[in-house]
Amino acid sequence: MPKNLNLTDNLEKYIIDHSEDLTNVQREIINYNNNLGDQKKLQISISQAQFLQTLIKFSHIKKILEIGSFTGFSALSMALALPNDGILVSLDKNDEFSKLAKKFYEKANEKKIKQMIKPALESLKEIKSTGDNFDLIFIDADKENYKKYYDLSVELVNTGGLIIIDNVLWNGDVADKKKDDKFTNIIREFNKYVKNDNRTKKTILPLGDGFTICERQ
Ligand SMILES: C[S@@+](CC[C@H](N)C(=O)[O-])C[C@H]1O[C@@H](n2cnc3c(N)ncnc32)[C@H](O)[C@@H]1O
Which residue's CA is minimally distant from atom 9 of ligand 1? Predict the structure, then answer.
């Protein structure tokens, strides 16, 4: 048996076909994103969304903060896994994406999502000033600010809560010595910083483009 599977498109389709069905609106968002060309890559994968949903349900998570909403696939997927009295605050600076996401949330009749539309560092400062805390913080926005988002998340997440960060394997390039571009190096530095931070315990999962799961100590 191989240590790791070669995740071909065929195998990925098989996994999706044999996992829980998506809702109509989740499917609609994916179809919309698929027509955006290169931008479709911004969305998390179906397996990542389903993993987040399982985690939310099993950990009885009630309050989520998302940094980077795009057209709303990850936010809607997570909100669907929340209990009725749950809440998800989703941050994005892009008006156009946020309007589209709102339309999808309304179509799904999903009322647990609150959007904050401005640069995430401004929203995070505002949230911090209210003394609000979260059970799960999902980081999936501009990579240049990942370290700042992580440090603020460590302050905003409850003890025992989770911080999950996407794109930490950067298409596998982080482990390729020949790669020396700006973004690969930003993610490498970020991963090193998180690894050496004793405020969290962490593991990296090779799901989608790589998820780091951090548990706040
Ligand atoms: C990778 S996409 C998020 C994908 C989303 N989580 C999903 O799975 O569909 C990153 C998003 O971060 C937003 N973004 C980039 N820089 C930002 C900033 N400084 N403040 C807030 N949002 C930002 C972009 O507008 C984009 O929608």
Answer: 43
